[in-house]
Amino acid sequence: MIISGQDVYTEQPKEVTIQSEDVRAALQAPIEEMVLHIKETFKTTNPDLASDIIQNGILLTGGGGLLSGLDRYLTNELEIPVWVSESALTNVVSGCLKVLETPTALRQTLMRSK
What we know:
By secondary structure, the protein is of the alpha+beta class. The protein contains five helices and four strands. Helix 4 (about 90-100) packs across helix 5 (about 105-110).
Protein backbone atom coordinates (compact mmCIF):
# COMPACT_ATOMS: atom_id res chain seq x y z
CA MET A 1 0.00 0.00 0.00
CA ILE A 2 1.21 3.50 -0.78
CA ILE A 3 0.87 5.94 2.12
CA SER A 4 1.04 9.71 1.63
CA GLY A 5 1.90 12.16 4.37
CA GLN A 6 4.42 14.58 5.71
CA ASP A 7 7.97 13.42 6.35
CA VAL A 8 8.68 14.11 10.03
CA TYR A 9 12.31 14.96 9.33
CA THR A 10 12.06 17.13 6.22
CA GLU A 11 8.47 18.32 6.81
CA GLN A 12 7.91 17.78 3.09
CA PRO A 13 5.15 15.70 1.48
CA LYS A 14 6.24 12.13 0.91
CA GLU A 15 4.88 8.82 -0.34
CA VAL A 16 6.14 5.51 1.01
CA THR A 17 5.18 1.95 0.25
CA ILE A 18 4.48 -0.27 3.22
CA GLN A 19 4.00 -4.00 3.23
CA SER A 20 1.57 -5.94 5.42
CA GLU A 21 4.61 -7.43 7.17
CA ASP A 22 5.66 -3.90 8.25
CA VAL A 23 2.26 -3.28 9.82
CA ARG A 24 2.22 -6.71 11.45
CA ALA A 25 5.67 -6.14 12.97
CA ALA A 26 4.68 -2.70 14.29
CA LEU A 27 1.53 -4.09 15.93
CA GLN A 28 3.03 -7.27 17.39
CA ALA A 29 4.21 -5.81 20.72
CA PRO A 30 1.00 -3.84 21.48
CA ILE A 31 -1.14 -6.87 20.63
CA GLU A 32 0.97 -9.13 22.85
CA GLU A 33 0.55 -6.58 25.65
CA MET A 34 -3.20 -6.59 25.07
CA VAL A 35 -3.25 -10.40 25.42
CA LEU A 36 -1.30 -10.10 28.67
CA HIS A 37 -3.78 -7.55 30.06
CA ILE A 38 -6.78 -9.66 29.06
CA LYS A 39 -5.26 -12.66 30.85
CA GLU A 40 -4.54 -10.53 33.93
CA THR A 41 -8.10 -9.22 33.90
CA PHE A 42 -9.47 -12.76 33.89
CA LYS A 43 -7.62 -13.44 37.15
CA THR A 44 -9.80 -10.85 38.92
CA THR A 45 -13.03 -11.42 36.99
CA ASN A 46 -16.10 -12.74 38.80
CA PRO A 47 -16.24 -16.51 38.13
CA ASP A 48 -19.79 -16.32 36.71
CA LEU A 49 -18.78 -13.59 34.27
CA ALA A 50 -15.59 -15.43 33.35
CA SER A 51 -17.63 -18.55 32.63
CA ASP A 52 -19.97 -16.57 30.37
CA ILE A 53 -17.02 -15.07 28.50
CA ILE A 54 -15.33 -18.44 28.06
CA GLN A 55 -18.58 -19.95 26.76
CA ASN A 56 -19.74 -17.02 24.57
CA GLY A 57 -16.45 -15.43 23.62
CA ILE A 58 -15.18 -11.88 23.31
CA LEU A 59 -16.62 -9.38 20.86
CA LEU A 60 -14.19 -6.93 19.25
CA THR A 61 -15.53 -3.48 18.48
CA GLY A 62 -14.09 -0.26 17.12
CA GLY A 63 -11.73 0.15 14.20
CA GLY A 64 -9.00 -1.89 15.87
CA GLY A 65 -11.31 -4.88 15.90
CA LEU A 66 -11.23 -4.85 12.12
CA LEU A 67 -7.50 -5.60 11.93
CA SER A 68 -7.23 -8.58 9.63
CA GLY A 69 -6.60 -11.78 11.58
CA LEU A 70 -6.79 -10.18 15.04
CA ASP A 71 -9.83 -12.27 15.99
CA ARG A 72 -8.05 -15.51 15.00
CA TYR A 73 -4.84 -14.50 16.78
CA LEU A 74 -6.68 -13.67 20.01
CA THR A 75 -8.73 -16.87 19.79
CA ASN A 76 -5.49 -18.88 19.56
CA GLU A 77 -3.68 -16.96 22.31
CA LEU A 78 -6.59 -16.80 24.78
CA GLU A 79 -8.21 -20.14 23.90
CA ILE A 80 -11.56 -18.31 23.93
CA PRO A 81 -13.73 -17.57 20.90
CA VAL A 82 -13.20 -14.01 19.65
CA TRP A 83 -15.65 -12.40 17.23
CA VAL A 84 -15.70 -9.14 15.31
CA SER A 85 -18.85 -7.05 15.61
CA GLU A 86 -20.70 -6.55 12.33
CA SER A 87 -20.98 -2.87 13.25
CA ALA A 88 -17.49 -2.48 14.72
CA LEU A 89 -16.95 1.00 13.29
CA THR A 90 -20.12 2.43 14.83
CA ASN A 91 -20.18 0.53 18.16
CA VAL A 92 -17.95 2.97 19.98
CA VAL A 93 -19.95 5.98 18.87
CA SER A 94 -23.25 4.24 19.70
CA GLY A 95 -21.97 3.36 23.17
CA CYS A 96 -20.80 6.92 23.83
CA LEU A 97 -24.16 8.25 22.69
CA LYS A 98 -25.99 5.92 25.08
CA VAL A 99 -23.80 7.01 27.97
CA LEU A 100 -24.35 10.68 27.18
CA GLU A 101 -28.11 10.14 26.88
CA THR A 102 -28.30 8.39 30.26
CA PRO A 103 -27.15 10.64 33.14
CA THR A 104 -26.72 7.74 35.58
CA ALA A 105 -24.55 5.84 33.09
CA LEU A 106 -22.43 8.93 32.54
CA ARG A 107 -21.93 9.37 36.32
CA GLN A 108 -21.02 5.69 36.72
CA THR A 109 -18.53 5.93 33.87
CA LEU A 110 -16.90 9.04 35.30
CA MET A 111 -16.71 7.55 38.81
CA ARG A 112 -14.99 4.38 37.48
CA SER A 113 -12.29 6.42 35.80
CA LYS A 114 -11.19 8.06 39.08
